[in-house]
Structures are given as C-alpha cells and as structure tokens.
Amino acid sequence: MLQDKTAVVTGGTRGIGRAVVETFLKNGAKVVLFGSRQETVDQALSELKEEHPDWTVTGLAPDLTDYSSVEKAMGQVKNQYGRIDILVNNAGISARESIYEYDPEAFKKIMDLNVNGVFNCSKAVAPIMKGQGGGSMINISSMVSLYGQPAGCGYPASKYAVNGLTKSLARELGRDQIRVNAVAPGVTRTDMVAALPEDMVQRLAATIPYGRVGEPEEVANTVLFLASELASYVTGAVISVDGAAMC
Ligand code: NAD
User: Fold this and answer.
1) Which terms under GO biological process does the entry name (predicted)?
2) What is the CA(175)–ligand 1 centre distance, in A?
C-alpha cells in the first residue's frame, strides 16, 4: 500500500509509533523513525534490521521542541530519500496530576512536546510536501481530546490542540494536495498504559463497550489507511480507534 513512499514517524522506537513503523515497512515504505535519544533509536533500528535485513529504515533523534533541530533533521531525510510523502506526529507524553499538585513547568513541558512538536514537524515538512506535489500528515491524538479526563488536564488540553492543528492545517494545505488527519486512540496496550496503576487499567477496560483495551497494531492499521491512496479524499478527520469508549 505504500510502495516507493518515504515516511517519517516521530516517537517510532516503541509503542504505537513502533507499530506504525513496522506496518509501514511491511507495506513497502522507506521509514525514518525519530526518537528522543540516539541510543534508543539505534536499538530499535538494530531490532528491525535483525528481523528484516531488506527493510529500508533509518533513524534520527532531533529535539522535537526545537524548530531548528527539526528542520535540520527533515532536511537530512529529504537529502537522503529525495522526498517525504508521509509524516506521522506520534511522539507524546501524558499527565495524571490533579490541578492542585500540577507543577506549571510540567504543564509547559507537555504542551511543548505534544503541541509545539507537532507544529514544528508539520511546518518543516509542509514545504517539502508542497514542492513534490502533495503528501499525508497524520497526528496521533487521543480519545481524551473528545471528552477530557478527570486529572492531568495538560494531556487532554494538548490533544485538543492537536485536533485544532489537524483541522486547521487540513483547510490550509488542501490546495497543496496535503491531507492532514488525526487518529484518536482509546486505551492502547503500550508503555504509556503500563505506567498506569493496574486497577486504573482494569476500570478503564470495564467501561469500554468492545470489552478490552486496544492493541498498537489496531491504531497502526488506521494510520496506514490514512497514509495510503485509499484515503485520497479524507482530510481534516479525527478518527477514533477506541472500542466505542467514552471515558
Ligand atoms: P509510549 O510512551 O510507549 O511511546 C512514546 C513515544 O514518544 C516513544 O517512542 C518516545 O521515544 C517518544 N517520546 C517521548 N518523549 C519524547 C521526546 N521528548 N522527544 C521525542 N520523542 C519522545 O507511548 P504510546 O502509548 O505509544 O503513545 C504514542 C502516542 O499515542 C502519544 O502521542 C500518545 O499521547 C498517544 N496515545 C496513546 C494512548 C495509549 O493508551 N497508549 C492512548 C491515546 C493516545
């Protein structure tokens, strides 16, 4: 589905991002994964290459919160592969603090990665996609971007902003044949969920009409659809992958 396409996936070393990287590679794309540290990037690359030596996958560790670092990294990808067809803005952190304990610096930090990081990557890639005649950006939002959550308000606030960027950039970049969509996962089995207390995960799972938490591959398959030509007229959408959860 993605033969001859080049994709950048942020936070591609583990969790949902890693599942997206593997799904894209299985579907013929060349992938550049971004991680927060070069060691974790190198580790992920060696695991992927051990599994499939024929896959074209490389990695970088730019500071997503710093525009010049992101612009330099996207320039390197463009120089190496000649184009960037797909950008998946996946890297993100969550929060659980109540407003009474919430450190304002922690609020700034979550906005910096989850919102400024998406803005920085989108801004750096947009001219490259425009110059080559189009592309597809997919932002990983969250079901809490639709309902909020009862603690850690910085996380849903950041994901509401991600939806805002998605819908606005879809309108702004449509004429340049750049589609911009978001996927809003529900509770998905990754390290982010493993960090939650087990009773909280059980309580969450019990409220999900489909009766279970989601798997990273289920999110990745929706990202694959949005990245592919099957979604050629889909832009500005926020697609839930959450088992019909209403948190
Ligand atoms: P995870 O913690 O397993 O992985 C997060 C990824 O982000 C990692 O690859 C990590 O390297 C990267 N990252 C973290 N901090 C970074 C930084 N400062 N700079 C660059 N990269 C950084 O999380 P996950 O569950 O796979 O989450 C991926 C995305 O999905 C996030 O945007 C998250 O908000 C969203 N999401 C997850 C769930 C869930 O239940 N797991 C639900 C809804 C949305």
Assistant:
1) bile acid metabolic process
2) 31
